[in-house]
Write a structure and sequence with these properties.
The chain has no helices and 8 strands. A 6-stranded antiparallel barrel has the order 3-4-5-8-7-6. The protein has a two-stranded antiparallel sheet with strand order 1-2. About 0% of the residues lie in helices and about 35% in strands.
């Protein structure tokens, strides 16, 4: 499975900017695999779909709007999705295209903003760590 399998267009107006005051009023899409139907419900209806022995997994992660677009010095476009701040200006990221980014590469984000990928591809081709110190004087 590739990370790119999960890429899709989502119109900005459909992305919630704030949680609903009544959380159980959030939308719930129900997919019936046997009947191949989709129902649109509200989350408080989920109880009617759970059976004894089912496991409900709750995701309490928070999304930060942190996508950075830059260019390698050779002109290759690079996109970083910041996942987690590890401290000391180091971020865990997902990178596209990850296979073209090598350890030590420098990516330019603007006139004075360069980032080195000190630990690129630490967990595979599309996930890396970046150190956001300025490399302008070290390149």
């Amino acid at each position: 499975m590739k990370v790119s399998d999960f890429n899709y267009e989502l119109p900005k107006e459909l992305i919630a900017q704030h949680p609903l005051e009544k959380r159980d009023s959030s939308r719930l899409m129900v997919l019936n695999r046997e009947k191949k139907t989709i129902e649109h419900k509200v989350f408080k209806d989920i109880i009617g779909y759970l059976n004894k022995g089912d496991c409900l997994v709750i995701n309490n992660t928070k999304v930060i709007p942190a996508r950075l677009y830059g260019k390698k010095i050779n002109g290759t476009d690079v996109e970083f999705l910041l996942l987690k701040n590890l401290g000391n200006d180091i971020w865990e990221t997902m990178v596209r295209p990850g296979r073209r980014l090598k350890e030590g590469d420098i990516v330019e984000f603007g006139m004075n903003d360069n980032v080195g990928t000190d630990l690129a591809s630490a967990r595979g081709q599309s996930q890396s760590y970046i150190n956001s110190r300025n490399y302008r004087n070290n390149a």
